Amino acid sequence: MEIHPNGDLLCAAFLRMQKVQAFNEKEFVDVYSRHHRQLQHIVFGFAKDSLIAEDIVQDVFMSVWERRGKMHIDSLPAYLIRSVKLAVFKSVAANKLHQKLIAQHHRPETIQWDEQVIYARFLEEYLSAVAEQLPEKCRMVFKYSRQQGLTIAEIAVIMCLSSKTVEAHLTRALRTLRLSLA
């Protein structure tokens, strides 16, 4: 655990967060050099493909570099590990779904599926899976709003909640879905 020269742990944590936000290229290359092999090993353990492992690790580091001014990270190594695991999950899920859709709809006599149609179906199923993991009331508000087309006022009456509470649940659901796509 890093301790600031004056002994203040909170100050040390704040300095670590500032370091991520103020990365320059040399520091970023140093972080990459220290962590990329471990991250590739983690990804390879799940994906069993060294090219995919390299791509995922590169994508995570690119994301960190591009968002470095907006990020507030307490532990960069922990953040990187979580990020590559999530990226592996998304990659494996996308690949499985892609293969499943092709297997379900592959008939030699029919025309080939358009990639956009396959991607749209994957996206719909992926978002449904993410929505199912929302807290119960949040999930119900989302379903009423987006799947049944009800207004906030109608949802508030059905669920016996205030309109502000319904808005808060819907905002949380949409934020969670948006972050899952990032």
UniProtKB/TrEMBL annotation:
**Record lineage:** Bacteria, Pseudomonadati, Bacteroidota, Cytophagia, Cytophagales
Which Gene Ontology terms describe the biological processes this protein takes part in?
DNA-templated transcription initiation
Keyword Transcription regulation recorded: yes
Descriptive protein name? RNA polymerase sigma-70 factor
Q: Which family does it belong to?
A: Belongs to the sigma-70 factor family. ECF subfamily.
Q: Name one Pfam family in it.
A: Sigma70_r2
Cited Gene3D superfamilies: 1.10.1740.10, Winged helix-like DNA-binding domain superfamily/Winged helix DNA-binding domain
NCBIfam families annotated for this entry?
sigma70-ECF
* Record keywords: Sigma factor, Transcription, Transcription regulation
Residue ranges of every copy of the RNA polymerase sigma factor 70 region 4 type domain listed in the record? 126-177
Which InterPro entries does the UniProt entry name for this protein? RNA_pol_sigma-70-like, RNA_pol_sigma-70_dom, RNA_pol_sigma70_r2, RNA_pol_sigma70_r4_t2, RNA_pol_sigma_r2, RNA_pol_sigma_r3/r4-like, WH-like_DNA-bd_sf
RNA polymerase sigma-70 region domain residues? 32-89
GO MF, one annotated term = sigma factor activity
